Amino acid sequence: MLNGVFTATEGSAIAVVYSLILSFIYKEIEPKDLPSILLDSAKMTAIVIFMIGVSSIMSWVMAFTNIPFDKMFHISTYYDIIIKVF
Q: Would you list the domain boundaries of the chain?
C-alpha cells in the first residue's frame, strides 16, 4: 500500500511556494520582480504545450497515412537485399 502526504503534482506546487517564500525571506527577489518571473514562466509553459500539441498532431498524421509501416517495409526490403548479396 502506498501512502503519502500529497501527489507528485501537489508536491511540486508546494516546492514552488516554499522556494518563493524562501526567496522573499532571503531577499533574492523583490515583489516587483514577481510579474516578470510569472510572465517568463508562462511563456516557457506555452512553448512546451505548443510543442506537445504539434507532436501529437504529427503523430496522428503519421499513423493515419501509415508512414511508419511503409518506412519499415522499405528498410526491411533493403536489408534483405543486402543480406542476400553478402
A: 30-85
